[in-house]
């Protein structure tokens, strides 16, 4: 897949995982399941989840938990790939 095709697919993804005030634990299994079924998964980190940390830090932590890579963070969203 070319880089432009890949970038376009990532850009067009809908958010399918939402991280809220309960943090990363409740979404860990859901992200893991979704990554087993598809190449990329986009997650949104709500303000209540971020607290005193950044989207990038939370995304890296979540990626480590599900053995995935953070492909991109933008604003309060992150795209994961396994």
From TrEMBL:
UniProt keyword Lipid biosynthesis present: no
The keyword Membrane appears for this protein: no
Protein name: YhbY family RNA-binding protein
Database matches in Pfam families: CRS1_YhbY (PF01985)
Gene3D superfamilies, A to Z: YhbY-like
Record keywords, A-Z: RNA-binding
InterPro entries reported in the protein's UniProt record: RNA-binding_CRM (IPR001890), RNA-binding_domain (IPR051925), YhbY-like_sf (IPR035920)
Molecular function as annotated in GO: RNA binding
Domain spans labelled CRM: 1-82
Alphabetized PROSITE patterns for the sequence: CRM
Top-rank taxon: Archaea
SUPFAM superfamilies: YhbY-like
